[in-house]
Amino acid sequence: RFRISDIDKRVRTSCGYCGVGCQMDLWVRNNQVVKVRGAGADVLPNRGRLCVKGRFGYQFLGSRERLRVPLIRKKGTFCEVSWEEALDYTAQKLAEIRDESGPDSLAGLASARCTNEENYIFQKFFRAAVGTNSVDHCARLCHAPTVAGLVRAFGSGAMTNPIEDLAGADCILVTGANVSETHPVTATYIRNARDRGAQIIVIDPRKIDLIQGSTLWLRPKSGTDVAWINGLIHIILEEGLADREFIRTRTDNFVALEEAVKPFTPRVVEDISGISEKQLRQAARLYGAASKSSIVFAMGITQHITGTDNVLSLANLAMVCGQVGRASTGVNPLRGQNNVQGACDMGGLPNVFPGYQHVSDPEIRLKFETAWGRAPLAAKTGLTVMEMMNSASEGRVRGMMIMGENPMLSDPNLNHVEASLKALDFLVVQDIFMTETSALADVILPAAAFAEKEGSFTNTGRRVLRVRKAVEPPGESRADWQILTEISTRMGYPMAYKNSSQIMKEIASLTPIYGGISYERLEDENLQWPCPSQEHPGTPFLHKEQFSRGKGLFHPVDYIPPAERPDKEYPFVLSTGRLLYHYHTATMTRRSEALNDFAPSAYGEINGEDLDRLGAGEGDLLKVTSRRGEIVVPARKSDRVAPGVLFIPFHFHESPVNRLTNDALDPASKIPELKVSACRVELV
Ligand code: SF4
């Protein structure tokens, strides 16, 4: 309804939802965002395209439920207090715990929703002011295996190619990624490729929308990825589709891989995964014969106890066919949240400083000690998300700071998470709304949302993108980095920055892959890291002449079944995921009517055969029970899931499916197995 003549200004910024990082113009009138439009058709990564979340999901900014003033829990009730009181109290409590029980008694969750600059300050605060490496964030629950696996295979843990590159591929293998719902603009590039005649192979236990118009859909049983990927490699070698020259000149350890895939004959793969030999051969031929083949994956691959093995297997497949180091090829993890890539890049992880520089390396530590004026910095790897929760329940972690995350809805085995957070002596949460997590806090500090501050996000394609302030934050809320520097200063480690640009300068000076990034350059350049110097143009695709680690390394991987399999007591496989209309724990999207009207509540997607067996129908209430808890959801009859499988989206606090999910961990990356739990389903 608004025309350009009605508005006060247009502000170019980055979408605050998913990792595609769409560029958009916010139309502002009277300090309110009133309309959103995609940036121009020549602007990457989205070329003017936006999905429903980016285009219509801005109403939360003006929600009456926004946090406006700091809150302290007094005698069990949240009381409004001044910033001075809240900051003094927070700093005093954190310092008290640190001084009594040591720095490792404190831990923090950084945020994939906040800017690079805020995540940088968050980890600097924990490492320099507190003295611990116990910093992690929800990347642990999505792509920790991607980083672990791709670093080992290639030397770099990020998407090898840019998103828009997909449009030029001849074959795209999409697995464990419901792209049209979770990264909708990425799906448009896959469709562009399909319209050019590219072969699209979808390998997914759910009948996702992308299957429409794809060449081939393979439906494996959940948690059997290593088996079918080894099977593909087995056939590719058997049928002479491997790129022997690439293997000889660019890789190491091929013989071990060759041995490892020998037992994975099509018959063995069919027994394990349910994929027929005919389909497996078709997929192997399409992927192996194409000139430019690209692999796209997301959490259907990573959220398993074999998450790292699954990623290593995909890297093996791409290297066997020489499909790395060229445009429109590669291994491409789709990172979920708007700045999950950046939060990892900025060292929001317990083992690395910004730029994946390891905390155990004395030279690297010396560099940061000198720059930050604080020595010695801790050399020991800190705790991951799930380890923090376990340590809290055992009293070893006594205090936590959580910035813009909501583990009380997003983490597995919520009953355990709740008990852990309640066991803390002190919990401080920075957020824009009261969430299931902040409701358990001692102090809540109101933060600014993406449209209310300056900064940068890094999208899933390693593209560093500016975030610009369009409107004032509500009430007294502040940017997270401003809150953090105030607390740090009060704890005896002064931090003072004039603005976020100054923080980016410090990031660039200490982080080689961001060495050439500055706000000045981002004004008119589209930079993807690694960008090591002011003169460097950035790197659209990785591993061109050699891999980041030198030669690509094959890893022989064997099949390990999921931690929980259906049995007599719990005969269903439970899987969780996202919907097009909601983002993560839905604190923002459920406060945007235009989105929430389409998906207002949770449901359990169940096959008609199972519903008939239960004597139930569409909309009937189902009690779903696992070894960890129970919830009730209405049934939604659907052939998107196979018989024996139940899918529940995790966005809804009224039916929190993570009360049921398994917290068994992948030993390499410590990701929990959110995609496969055993459960029982009964008609209420
Ligand atoms: Fe935002 Fe992702 Fe949608 Fe783009 S695809 S508009 S980044 S939610």
Automatic annotation (TrEMBL):
One of its GO terms (molecular function) is formate dehydrogenase (NAD+) activity. Keywords: 2Fe-2S, 4Fe-4S, Iron, Iron-sulfur, Metal-binding, Oxidoreductase, Repeat. The keyword Transferase does not apply. GO terms for cellular component: membrane. One of its GO terms (biological process) is respiratory electron transport chain. Residues 8-65 form the 4Fe-4S Mo/W bis-MGD-type domain. In the C-terminal section; belongs to the prokaryotic molybdopterin-containing oxidoreductase family. This is Formate dehydrogenase subunit alpha.
